[in-house]
Design goal:
homotetramer, about 400 residues, alpha/beta, Rossmann fold, Dihydrodipicolinate Reductase, domain 2, seven-stranded mixed beta sheet, about 35% helix, globular, disordered N terminus, Probable N-acetyl-gamma-glutamyl-phosphate reductase, chloroplastic (chains A, B, C, D)
Chain lengths: ~400, ~400, ~400, ~400
Amino acid sequence: MSAISFSSVCFHSAHNWNNPKEFGKLRKQQDGKLLVKCLSKSGNPISQNAVRVGILGASGYTGSEVIRLLANHPQFGIALMTADRKAGQPISSVFPHLSTQDLPDLIAIKDANFSDVDAVFCCLPHGTTQEIIKGLPKHLKIVDLSADFRLKDISEYEEWYGQPHRAPDLQKEAIYGLTEVLREEIKNARLVANPGCYPTSIQLPLVPLIKANLIDIKNITIDAKSGVSGAGRSAKENLLFTEVAEGLSSYGVTRHRHVPEIEQGLADVASSKVTVSFTPNLIPMRRGMQSNIYVYLAPGVKIEDLHQQLKLAYEDEEFVAVLENGVIPRTQSVQGTNYCLINVFPDRIPGRAIIISVIDNLVKGASGQALQNLNLMMGFPENLGLHYLPLFP
Amino acid sequence: MSAISFSSVCFHSAHNWNNPKEFGKLRKQQDGKLLVKCLSKSGNPISQNAVRVGILGASGYTGSEVIRLLANHPQFGIALMTADRKAGQPISSVFPHLSTQDLPDLIAIKDANFSDVDAVFCCLPHGTTQEIIKGLPKHLKIVDLSADFRLKDISEYEEWYGQPHRAPDLQKEAIYGLTEVLREEIKNARLVANPGCYPTSIQLPLVPLIKANLIDIKNITIDAKSGVSGAGRSAKENLLFTEVAEGLSSYGVTRHRHVPEIEQGLADVASSKVTVSFTPNLIPMRRGMQSNIYVYLAPGVKIEDLHQQLKLAYEDEEFVAVLENGVIPRTQSVQGTNYCLINVFPDRIPGRAIIISVIDNLVKGASGQALQNLNLMMGFPENLGLHYLPLFP
Amino acid sequence: MSAISFSSVCFHSAHNWNNPKEFGKLRKQQDGKLLVKCLSKSGNPISQNAVRVGILGASGYTGSEVIRLLANHPQFGIALMTADRKAGQPISSVFPHLSTQDLPDLIAIKDANFSDVDAVFCCLPHGTTQEIIKGLPKHLKIVDLSADFRLKDISEYEEWYGQPHRAPDLQKEAIYGLTEVLREEIKNARLVANPGCYPTSIQLPLVPLIKANLIDIKNITIDAKSGVSGAGRSAKENLLFTEVAEGLSSYGVTRHRHVPEIEQGLADVASSKVTVSFTPNLIPMRRGMQSNIYVYLAPGVKIEDLHQQLKLAYEDEEFVAVLENGVIPRTQSVQGTNYCLINVFPDRIPGRAIIISVIDNLVKGASGQALQNLNLMMGFPENLGLHYLPLFP
Amino acid sequence: MSAISFSSVCFHSAHNWNNPKEFGKLRKQQDGKLLVKCLSKSGNPISQNAVRVGILGASGYTGSEVIRLLANHPQFGIALMTADRKAGQPISSVFPHLSTQDLPDLIAIKDANFSDVDAVFCCLPHGTTQEIIKGLPKHLKIVDLSADFRLKDISEYEEWYGQPHRAPDLQKEAIYGLTEVLREEIKNARLVANPGCYPTSIQLPLVPLIKANLIDIKNITIDAKSGVSGAGRSAKENLLFTEVAEGLSSYGVTRHRHVPEIEQGLADVASSKVTVSFTPNLIPMRRGMQSNIYVYLAPGVKIEDLHQQLKLAYEDEEFVAVLENGVIPRTQSVQGTNYCLINVFPDRIPGRAIIISVIDNLVKGASGQALQNLNLMMGFPENLGLHYLPLFP
């Protein structure tokens, strides 16, 4: 069996077999080393090489989304799932939509035996996450989906989260998991702080533009929109169907906790402090996130320069696509997938541009990017288990 | 029966009778003249004073919304309803939700006898409206809900609508119907060009601020969101439930036809050309509109100045409310009503502010404001027939 | 001012003035006695006759719906509103959509002074309601929207609600408030047990058919569908937007608490025990309820007999409409209104029929029927404050 | 590489590797023959064995759903896609959500070269489909998703579709594609008539019960609910977001075209004519279908017998699951998947039962079952490309 042919199976890309263009693309992404990793020593890739994954906090939406994605992952298996308040229950009692799956029962974290586990997705609430990760065995690779290790400056963490950081040493070790921007660091990381959904949708378009000095970093205005799953699964009156449906509302105006993370990411590439205007809006839909970003062009820069710079920055990326001129990204086009779609438009006010980016807040904005990161951390192609087309309609 | 007591009936405000604060408010709004008009010559206000209203284009959403509002209007009765392609049919065949009502059948405009009609709401598509209004008898008061008479500069009309204006003389006569801003002109108008939904939601907060020189008119960024009914009732693939639900999309980026209307209204008070950044977004809800407006403060101006100026500008208005500090307006709070709710928030970027305004696009953004205008044009209190509380949930 | 003219104002039916057919209908509904009642002793209907209403439990959806309806009621004013856990707060802190209204602040029931109150809507949860109503002053007219006084047989209450009834004497006094069926009893009642939403939508079509012996009472199958507001406003995981949207589920299969109420109502007219098959379904919409009822015709009976019997039964009713042959009732057609729309269809299986009825669960299914009842109890026309057309779209 | 290990990759079931129970299940489903087929002659499964698939009518929802499913299919590749009115366009102009995929452009059927194609999914409207399939080369395996070959009795076709059948010979050849019921016939078929969504959701629970004589076939009452995608993608007023959202309506009462297909399927196992009561309801959600089926038990039969019979009938099936006692199937639990979930409940009326089944109307109700069938027709395991977990929320 030739490596090339099997690689197609491995990447679940059978639909492209008869398309020469696509083959070129696949080849570019898969160097020999990756293929060897994927196939590994002739024999049994699953039983010998498979990664045994734990999901900490499997009763929330990011946890169940990890489960969904792993269902089509050729190398990762679920070894254990925790949910302290639901310990002892089958996952189907928490998520009836998983009742057809043969999954381990939920256990309490304290009862988890991590000696048979290689890596964990940590899907716990911020605040408590620090202590828990501090207590995990050191052999584990960890992708933390909470906010607890995203801010490098722990004084900023204290300011926005109202409590001192309890694991400052781990914070120093943590790598920020914006895959396309920090891929090499992620590959070698033991602990990855998976980015927030808003920060992902905002940094992906802005980082290449700031890096290339194409926009003014002093006047970035972001009007972002999110589906309701971004608020998690806790039973709150303001998240009831009756309260959310058929309406729209801004929230956290000027003080949403994703602000420091956004500004940190932009400042890193700008090499100077960045303050952004950021307003999130709750939209009556379950998933999806869109950021409309209003920017001023740097002197002499044209809209087309932005478009080309983004095209260039992401031409080799599988999960970030810059659309053709004039095509408006839609959240429906990424539902259930790890894609981020971006485009740039001229503003009526000369010297300005409008950037629109869309992601699925639970995939590229959470569990999908987490899996992308763990793939890298374990030495696999980053797209394993992420070959989903959007569920539309 | 005392005038005061009856006025309460007239204004359907019975729920306030036991509330002294409210009585003060009512008295302020109702001068003697209005009360006399409303009650009129001892006797039969309905049969003698009632206004006979025609609805041209009753098969669309703005038409049916006029019908809904008139159901609780003490002075207006529906004399005729037209819908050329549905002529001869009962309204229930077009709008099953009106089947319980005793309404005249739909007729073709050419068959309408306007001699028994005092006023018309013109709910027809732009373009054809000009010719039709040109042909109407001159005794009619007209509120036109199309875009055809909103732009004073007919060359601008031609630019944005792709055809020369066919009734330039009528255009000169037309008064722009943003009630709170042009109330006195509207009272004496024969033809009112009812504002678009986006322009209403944007001008109401911005006009008082520009008038008071509190904001920079060169850097106004508007990210607006609309429910789907704003697109009307035509059967288009992109408006299907399956295409719209569970997603979000910007549209008409940088070239939405409401732009010149918005800029015209702001330029009028600024006394100079105004160019705004305007991006509308389609939200998966039936009704509701929110405009997030990002502005730069004029030198020395503070957020609180904006809040106070808006409070001042609208303190006597029934339908525009400036919320208390920190309260975020929600579209759910105006659903089915003629209210516009506004608030101002500090931006993270110093020297800037975020203004949020919400309306129901079919009421204050269309048929409600149209009725408010016709009330004024006929000499009635402007709130007749508009006493609806939001339908929530 | 003539009685006729004022009656039109009183009934908010101005839109019908130019429609001779409608006048006939109005005259039929308004006998002299009602008009006199409505107008009362020459003078000030509001200040002298007005009914001072209390709302117990104003922080839930049925409470806020009462508030919405009273906004256009010419005779009822709100004297007090209670919500124990929110006592001391303005209603706008609980329902932002009411922030434009001048309403009394919320108080605790124990602090309510009922000496200035004529009637109360009791919008409290079942169970606690019994004790509270037992403690209310006897001069109060009470419409109870909970389930606590709906079941005549208190042993049945205990069976379905898991606790003994604590006010059996009051239970004997309570009149079941299905207005069209028990109008005369309601007029003289002091305590009305307002029907549940499902029972209302089911009894309205079935009672006349059973009364006329047109259907077999042994084989009634009901598949009913409800919007989410039927579940109230409590923060439960299964009512979150994310859990409800884009899906459908049956619930309470074979054991929904509305069953004994439905069977009691049908047994009353059948004069024998009735057992029905009843399956409710939760639909991703905020309001609206539809019951599809599958019945066997009595020997010799035809579909058309059912249609005619229903037409006959409801021909003088304002709020129950039997549609023309073949027209399918839609929940959208009653949204925000007190209407019940009914129709009958032939089944493919000979000798059977399908009955479809729709209501708004919060209006005819709760607060609207409650107001209809209180109107009657206070001697007013039952349609006061209920003149709303559906909010569509 | 051992066959066993690869089979896991082939089945994308990596998540089960550490679960001994699951291994047993997989082994049962995969006999040696299937594994050989899947892997085939040592070498290149894709380039030598891969099936080249055409999609006729790729611009509708069933077409795009086939594309979505094939993205994770290891053996099928898309060779051509037709859409006559969109010929020459890229698929992204019709379905923006597919713009990230490298797919062939749309062509007209008349321009399709079928010599390089092994099989087609025919996703065209009923009526025209007959002629088109008649004209296709005979070497093609065909799964037809239209209604054109579902009714064995062509006079019945003419009665329900209003035109004589134009390919009666093909009709004789066609195999009805209800996979779990007619698997062996499907394996050898050249033309499969893929079942309708309602018939699938109804026959799967009823066929085993009728076969075992457990229910009365004379009194089957079905109240079914469907998401809006069941109506396809044509631009019709009644399918607009504004018309469908926040409401519910029955349609096609007593005369829905799926009735003869349902009755044919049940009659086949009952060996006598079956007439059912069938009422479909349109639900404001994009996908999902639920059938509530009310049945009378045969003499002496108990609810538990039904449950056990269904458990038994489907114990070896991957895509049909009978839930544990008391668990209510929800449409959210199958969204985006090929599963059918079933359960049985006691009715309040003795001697009766309530059966609830749910599917995704676009997957098990259309494109998923179509792929399941083509897998069988081509000699592959039927679950290839169908390993999706539900998208929830």
